[in-house]
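Reply to dn_fold:

You asked what the input looked like. This is it:
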Amino acid sequence: MASSSSYNSPCAACKFLRRKCMPGCIFAPYFPPEEPQKFANVHKIFGASNVTKLLNELLPHQREDAVNSLAYEAEARVRDPVYGCVGAISFLQRQVERLQKELDAANADLIRYACNEMTSQLPSPSLVRSTSRRIGNEAGGSYFQNPAYSHPYSFPWDDNSSGHLNEGGGGGGGGSM
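and this is what came back:
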């Protein structure tokens, strides 16, 4: 809660309404005299009577959040009378969507760069053919495995437990080529 010096000067609400600020003023803790525009906006949009009713219906620990919410909505309505804070929320949602697309594009570029780096570090195709072994089954499904390059993942037909194909195993009954 914002502290108010209600004994020295009236709160922003009482000052705006040109009335004496009493010690039990419901506005004093939330509208300090240093922030007169805060109450002016809230009064212009919601009215002092409605705000008084609202604050009296709330529990004391809920009032500060309610006043902050009212002040935010009132300021947004003053800036944009048609859309208020909904306009600000829509703007921020569009900005998040635009930034998400930029992030997706940057991630795609990063993946493309990483793939290009990986392919540039692989040995030439003639070297791969001479040092690779054919793994597959009798039905003709096969692939070539380069012993110098291990995959960080295992295939479903891989029967070794480590996940690296160049450590033996490989299954499928294929011969070497």
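Residues 100 and 106 are 10 Å apart (CA to CA).
Hope that clears it up.
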